[in-house]
Amino acid sequence: MSNEGQRDIPGMFAGLAATTKRDLLLAWKRPGDVLNPLFFFAMVCTLFPLAVGPSAEQLEFSGPGVLWVAALLATLLSLNALFISDFEDGSLDQFLVSPQPLPMLVLGKTLAHWLTSGLPLVFVSPILAITYRMPLSVVGVMMLTLALGTVSLSLLGSIGAALTVGLHRGTALLSLLILPLAMPIMILGANAVSLAATNDIYSTGIWALGAYAIASLSLAPYATAAALRISNE
Amino acid sequence: MTHKLSGDNLTLIRGERCLFQELSFALESGSLLILEGRNGCGKTSLIRAIAGMLSLEEGAVYWDDVPVEKVRQTFHGSLVWLAHRTGLKGDLTLVENLGFERSLRAHSTQDPEEVYERLGISRLKKLVLRSLSAGQQRRVALARMLLSNVPLWFMDEPFTNLDREGRVLVMELVEEHCSRGGMCVMAAHQDVEINVPTTRVKIQ
Amino acid sequence: MWKWFHQLASPPHFYRISLILAPWLGISGLILVAYGTWQGLFVVPMDYQQGDAFRIIYVHVPSAYLSMMAYMIMATSGAIGLIWRIKLSHAVAAAAAPIGAGFTFLALCTGSIWGRPMWGTWWEWGDPRMMSELILLFLYFGYMALRSSIDDTTKADKASAVLALVGIVNVVIVHFSVEWWSSLHQGQTVFKKGTMDADMRIPLFIMLIGFTLLFGSMLLRRIRTEVLYRERRTRWVREMILSPGGGA
Predict the structure, then answer these.
(1) B80: pLDDT confidence band, cut at 50, 70 and 90?
(2) Does C151 lie at the interface with B, CB-CB under 8 angstroms?
C-alpha cells in the first residue's frame, strides 16, 4: 500500500463525536422526528385533566407524577427508532467492523438521542408544569430531575432498542422491556419533585438520579453493544 | 507490508442448518479470495463471519497468524466492508457521508476529487444519497473504499445493480488494489475473472 | 470434577439423569408439601394478630422465594450459556422462565388474598414487596416475549440472556427504590418480618423445601422437553425415540 504512514486509526472519542454529529445532522434533516415526541408529551399532559377533571388541588398534587409519566412515554416513543435505520441500511454492519469500540459508537448515538429527545423535554416541561400550577421553584427541581432522568432513560432504553431492533412488532416489545428498567428512574424523579412541592428535603432523590445516570453511563453502552451484535446476526 | 488472512476449520450453524463446516482458507497480500456458490448457500454468512460480524460455531480466523479476537482493533482497522446495504445515509450528501467515514477509520492522503472523478460521481457531491440511483450509490460506496487506506477489502456481491461499465470498473479497482499489495475477499454468485492470483472456495 | 460437569452439560447425558431424578424430586416434594400444608392449615395455632388468615404464608412465602430463585437460575444459566457457550445452559434458562412467572403470579395472588382481610382491598399499591413482585412479573413477561419474537433459537438464547442479566441489576434497584417510595407515602405493610414462633416456623421451612423440590422436578421436566426440541434433529434423539420403550 502506498501510504502506510496514514494508517492511524482515529481515537475512540473521535468515533463518539463523529457518531453524535452524524445523528444530530440526521435529526436536523428530519425535524419531525424530534418534534413528534414533544407533541406527544404535551398531549399526554392534556389527557389527565380531561380524564380526571381540572380541579386545582388535584392538578397541583398530581403534576409531578403526570409530567414524569408523560416524559417517560414520550421517551419510549423516540427510543423505538434509535437503531432501526442503522440496522436496515447497513450502518450497523459498518459499526461492527469498525476499529472503534462499539460501546463508544453506541454512546455517541445515545448522546445524540438524549440531545434530541431528553433535553428538549427538559425545556418544554416548564410550559406544561405551569399549567399544572407548579410553583416556579419546583419547576426548577422538575427540570433537574428530568435532565438527569432522561440521561438514564436514553442509556437504558438503548439496551431495549438494541434487543428489539429488526423484530416484528418490536415497538410494543420495547416498551415492555424498558418499563421495568425505567420505573425506578420515574419513582425517584417524580417523588423528588413531589417532595420539593411540599418543601421537604428532596436531595436524596436528586443524588440517586445522578448516581443512576453515572451508573448507566458506565454500564449501559456495553450491554447495548452486546445486544446489537446479537441482533445483527 | 504484507499481510495474511487465514481461516481454520470454520463451521457455522444458523438456525438449524449447518451452512458450512471445517472450511479453511489462506489469503496473502496481492491476491483475491472468491467465495462462490448459489444464492442462499451461505457465502454471505461466511464472508460476514470472516469479517467478524457473525460468531462461528467452531474454528477461528487469523490476521497475520494471530487470532482475530486478540487483535480486533487492528484487524478491523485494516479492512473495509462493501455490501448491498452500503451503510450510507440516504438523508445525507456524499460529502457528509464520507466525512463521517473518515472519522471511523484511517483514510488515505489521496485527493478525494480524483477519486470522485474516476468513479464518475463528482457532479453528485451536493445531492442527498436518497436521490441517487442504486448504481450511483454503489459508486459512492466504492469511493469510500478507495479513500480508506486499508489493505483488506471485503466485498459481498459487488456486481449486483451495476451495469457493464460498473462491473468493469469494480474489476479494475480490485486489480489495482491487489497489484499494490492489497488483498480482497469477495462473495460472488457470478463467474468472476480478475487478473489477479485467485483462490476460490465453493460452498455447497 | 470437571469431567462430571462436562458430562452434565451434554444433552443426552443430562436427559438420562433427569429421567431418573425428576420423579424422586417430585414425589419427595409432594410429600413434604402435603405434610407442610396439613401442619400449616390444621396443626399450627392461630396467629395472635391476624387470625387464621396468616396461614396463607405457607404458600405465599415459598412462592415468592421461588419466584426470585427461578429468576436467578434463569439469569445465571443465561450468563453461563453466553460466556462459556454451553447449549444446555440456555435450555435451562428457557425452561425456568414460565415456572418462575407462574410462581410470581402465585405469590401475587396469595399476597392479595392475604392482604384482603388486612388492607380491606385486593390490592395495595403502597406495599413495596408486592410492587417489587409485580415488576418481577413484568420482567418475566418481557423475557418470554423477547424469546418468542426471535425465531432463531440461538439468537433468542443470547438476546434473552443479555436481558436477564440487565434485569437482575434492575430487580435489586427496583426493590430499593420502591421501598424508598413506600417510606415516603406511608403505605401499610402487611408482611412484617417479625419473629415467628418455632411452631409456625417449622412447617414454613418444610413447605419451603417441599416447594423447592417440586420446583426442581418441574424444572427438570421442562428442561427435558426443551432439550428434546432443540436436539430434535440429532441422532441420539432419533435413536431414543425409535428404541422400544423410548424415553418417558
Answers:
(1) very high
(2) yes
> Is a pLDDT exceeding 70 seen at residue C190?
no
Q: Which three cell numbers stand for residue C72?
A: 436467578
Instruction: Tell me what pLDDT residue C201 has.
Output: 80
**So what's the pLDDT on residue C246?**
58
Q: Which residue has the cell 456481491?
A: B157
Q: A225: which residues sit within 8 A by CB, 6+ positions away? A: A101, A102, A103, A106, A162
Q: Where are the domains of chain A?
A: 12-231
Rounded CA separation B117/B125 (Å):
11
State whether B15 and C233 contact (CB < 8 Å): no
Residue among B81, B89, B104 whose CB faces A93 most closely: B81
Domain edges within chain C:
20-43+52-232
Rounded to the nearest angstrom, the minimum Cα separation between A3 and chain B is: 7
Mean pLDDT across chain C: 85
| Residues B81, A9: C-beta atoms closer than 8 Å | no
Mapped onto helix, strand or coil, the DSSP state of residue B200 is strand
Q: What is the grid cell recorded at A47? A: 389527557
CB B121 within 8 A of CB B136: yes
Mean pLDDT value across residues B1-8: 90
- Contact criterion met (CB < 8 Å) for B182 and A7: no
List chain C residues with CB under 8 Å of A209: none
Which residue is closest to A165 within chain C, CA to CA? C150
Whether pLDDT at C5 is above 70: no
Residue of B nearest to C231 (CA): B16
C-alpha cell at C140: 418475566
Chain B neighbors of A11, CB-CB under 8 A: none
Question: Residue A2's pLDDT is what?
Answer: 42
Q: CB contact, 8 Å: C28 with chain A?
A: no
Helix, strand, coil abundance in chain A, percent, nearest 5: 85, 0, 15
Does C184 sit within 8 Å of A195, measured CB to CB? yes
Q: In this complex, do B15 and C151 lie within 8 Å of one another by their Cβ atoms?
A: yes
Is the minimum CB–CB distance between A230 and chain C shorter than 8 Å?
Answer: yes
Of A15, A11, A41, A44, nearest in space to A111 by CA: A15
pLDDT at A5: 40
Q: What is the mean pLDDT of chain A?
A: 91
Is C152 within 8 Å of B15 when comparing Cβ atoms?
yes
Secondary structure tally for chain C: helices H, strands E:
8, 0
Which cell goes with C237? 434423539
Structure confidence at residue C169 (pLDDT): 86
The C-alpha atoms of residue B145 and residue A214 are separated, in whole angstroms, by 38
The architecture of the domain spanning B1-78+153-204 is 3-Layer(aba) Sandwich (3.40)
Query: Which residues are CB-neighbours of B197 under 8 A, at least 6 positions away?
Result: B30, B31, B32, B178
Q: pTM of the full predicted structure?
A: 0.89
Distance from CA of C4 to the nearest CA of B (A): 23
Cβ atoms of residues B88 and B42 within 8 Å: no
Most confident of A104-113, A172-181, C38-47, C231-240: A104-113
Neighbours of B98 (CB within 10 A): 22
- How many helices (H) and strands (E) chain B has is answered by 6, 9
* Beta carbons within 8 Å of C227's beta carbon, 6+ residues apart: C11, C14, C15, C88, C91
Output the pLDDT for position C147. 95
B53 pLDDT exceeds 90? yes
Q: Which residue from B52, B86, B181 is facing A96, i.e. has the nearest CB?
A: B52
Q: Given CB atoms, is B15 within the 8 Å cutoff of chain C?
A: yes
Q: How far A137 CA lies from chain B's nearest CA (Å)? A: 42
| Assembly ipTM | 0.92
All structural domains of chain B with their residue ranges: 1-78+153-204, 82-150
